[in-house]
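Fold this complex.
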Amino acid sequence: MPLVDHNAVHWGALARAALGLALCPLLFGVINRVKAKFAGRTGQPLLQTYFDLARLLKKGAVYSRTTTWLFPMGPLLGLACALAALCLAPLGGMPGLLSFEGDLFLFAGLLSLGRFATAAAALDTGSSFEGMGASREMQFAVPAELAQILGLAALAQATGSLSLSEMLARIDMVRWEAAGPVLALTGTALFLVLLAETCRIPVDDPNTHLELTMIHEVMVLDHSGPDLAFILYGQGVKMWTLCAMLAGLLAPVRSGDPLLDVSLGVAGVFALALVMGVVESSMARLRLLLVPRLLVGATALSALALILLLR
Amino acid sequence: MTLFAACLLTFLLGALASLLPRSFRAANALGSGFAALGCLLGLVPAVQALASPQDWELILYWPPPWGLGALGLDGISALFLTPALGLMGLGAVYGRGYLANMEGRKRAGPPWFFYNILAASITGVFSARDPLLLLLFWEGMALSSYFLVCMEDRDGSVRRAGRIYLVASHLGAAFLLALCLQPGASWPPAYGLAPGASVTMLPGADPAGLIFLLALVGFGSKAGLAPLGVWLPEAHPAAPSHVSAVLSGVMIKTGVYGILRVLLAYQPEPWWGWTLIAMGGGTAVLGVAGALSQAEIKRLLAWSSMENAGLMLLGLGLGTLGRAHDAPLVAALGFSAALIHMVNHGVFKSLLFFCAGSVLHGAGERRMDQLGGLLKRMPATGTAFLVASLGICGLPPLGGFASELLLGLAAMKGLLLPTSSLDIPSLAALAALILCAGIAAAVFVGAFGAVFLGEPRSQAAQNAHEAPALMRWPMIFLACLAPLMGLCAPLLLNTALGVLEPALPGAQALGAPLVTGLTTASLVFALLLALFGGLFLLRRTLLRGRDVRTGPTWDCGYIAPTARIQYTYSSFAQPLSEMFRSLTGSTGSATRPWRLFPVRVGYFAETQDRVLTAFLAAFNFMDARLEALHRLQQGQVHVYVLYIAATLVALLAWGLW
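Structure:
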């Protein structure tokens, strides 16, 4: 008995997507506030990212003479992909705007397209630093994508459904009691993917600048003004989307009341932001050569979860 | 039917006509004109057969011995033939522009003679209705493509590639000979033939299994399967670019076609599917890992063709397992994924080879690390290459996504089956698919970036110019087709399922929810494009009237950048290539800076094609073992006549006994 009507448009999801659009910059504020508390600082305002976005959107832009028409398209396509992925993702067990069998591949494909666009725009500048960042981003994406799809396949196996909305709607306390260890393994793997995809410590350090070791920040060095605002906002939307999915798995309370479920989902998202802040405060960035091992480890966890579920 | 006969006749006429004129231009125009016309004529019946399956046969009045000499088109033939004819027609138009700069250096007649023969043979392979005719067309295809590969015969590496191709393709043909000339063979094998019903074989042997193995080796060598397809990354890049496009975009599919026919005819056994998935997964991963360590753009594309052939085989393998284990949904998904991937790969890979040819034509440089900044100098080629790269990586708004989605769904459905029989192959197929998708994205971002973006790294790239109109229009046409194929994927899936219906009864009904699912995916594509358009307008409104400046690239404050400090393709792919070192066989050695005043610093990287090396080593081993037989091979006619006479006497004695 399907809980979610496939191939139908769930208009209610528009409100949930709008919630994500409004709240996603706040996630950066929460993470920064946690880090500040750990370090004993006051920290920047919670709403700092909103101020940054507003300021960037008001500015002009500087473009490199090396770049072509492709360069400003990178941030646009990146943000469009993040927004489309947001439309597919469920929140608090409530379905996304559209869903169909196999939409998890489309979800991963949209993230991959955004990555392709960002990396191509980085190479367009002809800068050796940006080339380095693009190379690393594409390298780390290989194990991260594998971990993500295998993890989602494990969820599909646990719930018997192949669409994101349906599989997360079916995860509840009963399912956790039946297959708790496996779901925990998947959750761990997906959390590592979340850290890699949103460029957080221990995979990437969002606060470093002008370093040979950074990945995402170095790819967007040449973007300025509204383009940079699109990139920053796209990062926020992507983080919200991935957190919403993970929160749906880790906080399996389904009351049946849409309002309560959605508020629980939002609470889950912010709780994950808290955890990310704690992780960032308590450990250093991994050595670059160790990052692939971490992500291959995540792949192994996903694969293990999937194998444990096979009859 | 008349049109189909006319198509084949046009190819033959074109082959002869292109040899006649003395002037280069006339031969070039005639050869390409006839080839394009033939393709257009053939497209009409092919599309008709696709729209409404009809069963007509064209019987030749001069049948070959023990054969019917019949040609016909059913759904499967038509589905393979339609993209093949379209791409060969575009290749003919493109080839006219491409060959034009050979004027005075080469004759235009022979390449067009062989191109027309190749087109006729490929059309014949897809429509042959008896085994002997299939073999004849197959051989025509192998020989004509050999001569096309060897067009630049002054280059030693091209001659070597041609020789490897000739040997490998005839090794494969030997297995086909055994397949087609066994007593009672029919082509295509009839649907639902019980194993051993009409085939007589050695007693005790498993006839269907043997036929499957013969087909896998014979057809698989043409498709570029891992140990047999050693020739592919050598031969495809050596050919002129419009021929490379046909070899990679069309000829590889003749191998897939043959295997598909055999798989659909017999009731398969599970080990067939396991074999296909092991070989397909291996080929796919090996192919894409090989693409990581290539220096030349056409070689990279050829390795990527191997990867895609592997993905098609994965689809066939999942479909076969689905049939063997009575899971019709997995069967329908697997086979239709392979068919749709065949169409998509044909379009995108031909487009990529056209673009690579255009780069070669415009810049005269094939090494990616010497190119760069071509998007400014060749806007049409660069944009087309970008579109094709997105498509070949299976990224969402384009057609490539649909086939990878179906393949992934087939594997997931296999995992979800209540029985455990499909678990391991499905898991392997899923992992191989995602791994390949990830690496392919890295390969094509890197290749596109190195060739088309940044600053030119050499004088050749600096002076590059856009291709002439005859080469540009086929590229533009295919690049516009690509997003349409993404939006029309449900239609394509429906066609593929309809084509499979006779062999897999109920496929269309089972696949109906998937068609709806793909329609929803197309809705998401439309949403994505709308969002992109909206953001584009938003950015334009925001920047209107503001201070928009240009300046040098902000390279972390470094003020004296040169084109040489840019990331090249080799440096871009190095981390991944290092990760998959055991597959790519790439080795690197560095001379590190040493002492207070370092004198020499350097890095040397090399890649060996391990499969080809092993293949050649096997030949050398055989050669050493068979040395004694060299004495029989005297090279003198009278000794050979003596052998014939001795054989006849021996046979006579045996007959009289």
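Residues 12-309 of chain A form one domain.
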